Amino acid sequence: MEAEAVVEARGLEKSYGETVALSGASLAVEAGEVFALIGPNGAGKTTLVRALTGTTEPDSGQARIMGESPTAVDRGRLGVLPQDFTPPDRLTAHELLAYYAGLYDDARDPDDVLADVGLADTGETWYEDLSGGQQRRVCVGATLVNDPDVLFLDEPTTGIDPAGRRTVWRLIEDLAASGTTVILTTHDMAEAQRLADRVGLLASGSVIARGTPDALVSDHGGSSRLTIETTADPAAFDDLEHPVSRPERHRGRSAESAVVVRDIDPEAIATVVDYLERRSLEYTGLTWAEPDLEDVYLALADRAELERTAAVDDVADQSDAVEAGETA
Predict the structure, then answer these.
(1) Where is the ABC transporter domain (predicted)?
(2) Does residue 147 fall inside a structural domain?
(3) Could you list the mean pLDDT of each consecutive 10-residue stretch along the chain, which spans 328 residues?
(4) Burial (0-12, 13-18, 19+ Cβ within 10 Å), 15
């Protein structure tokens, strides 16, 4: 029997004037699951979180948390971290958490929460004097003082240094292990791949793909690849038994400074090195990689953008045709 969803969205629609933020967005998240929402800026992630938490009223569709409307559910059972959360800065970190703890009848000790987010030694520091990453961790802590059953985190690790980010990751993992349901949005694919039991890719206001990270990578990530740091043209590899091309969107370098050999196992790398040396093709480095969640993101987001652009062009063409007919 399929488990009952703790958080559910069915066909949510939301527009702001002519801007469509949500277009039939649907998802279901089970108890104790970590569900990551990924997608480009403007895809509707924050609007979806707001609709699920009752801070935005959708134009149509239905959202439910623990079987109730988001506006009817006991707020003491929820923790919500907005992307733009800005608490009062003339309080210490401890005073801030104590303030939010005072909003609940059975709250956690602020010192324990500070320890959870890795800030046990900064409780007496003014919030405004904390670094940006420390401030964000205090904000994460503010969502935990009521020990929520369901936790919504909108870009929780934005601005946090790598060590602090891992502290937050471990905290989220511990919360999920104890039964807390976590819905988070992120642009960090490594974060989503590590934390999420399942991932949903949002594009143009709809969830266009969902599944475990491994399943999404298997279905949409493409093949393994060997990146060769070289200015040689792909045509120089015409008789190599593996397909070679310029990277479509290369990470951290110019596309003209590398070629990518696809569908290649690590055991075959030596044959590529021999090929380079026999043909005196200069190169400065080799990197082999399996597809990951970032490849899925790029593939599906690019596809969605192309479809959206094609739809806009079709509407423009039809409008031009109508205007031309009226003019004639």
Answers:
(1) 7-229
(2) yes
(3) 81 95 96 96 93 95 96 94 88 96 94 96 95 95 96 95 95 96 96 96 94 93 90 91 78 71 91 94 92 89 65 48 55
(4) middle
